[in-house]
What we know:
Layout: E1 46-51, E2 59-62, E3 66-75, E4 81-86, E5 101-105, E6 110-122, E7 126-131, E8 147-153
Amino acid sequence: xxxxxxxxxxxxxxxxxxxxxxxxxxxxxxxxxxxxxxxxxxxxxxxxxxxxxxxxxxxxxxxxxxxxxxxxxxxxxxxxxxxxxxxxxxxxxxxxxxxxxxxxxxxxxxxxxxxxxxxxxxxxxxxxxxxxxxxxxxxxxxxxxxxxxxxxxx
Length: 154
């Protein structure tokens, strides 16, 4: 079968499909749609890891706008810790900067994993801190190697 090409606006070699009117073309399928993911060695998410210091662990994850897709945090101590997320392009000023999210990292070898399918959009940047108290004004340092945080972002 010969395919006529070169008659579309995109140039030679591009097949043209002619629709008789301005109607939508509907795709139909009997049964389930099948989608196949194709592995790639580039274009994926960037990973960030922080093992806590004996501080409030203020850190810049990305110094420009981004999207957060995955948060993993685990706490080996017997006290709560709190992971705070900021829409900042630099380290937050812990106790003064206002976080957009605060997550409890439970004690005693516990933690959490959060998947954000479409990503959480942060228009300025991605920054974090980890403290011992829940309030935005808290400046309580946590212990050395108490918490590990892993983030996946773009």
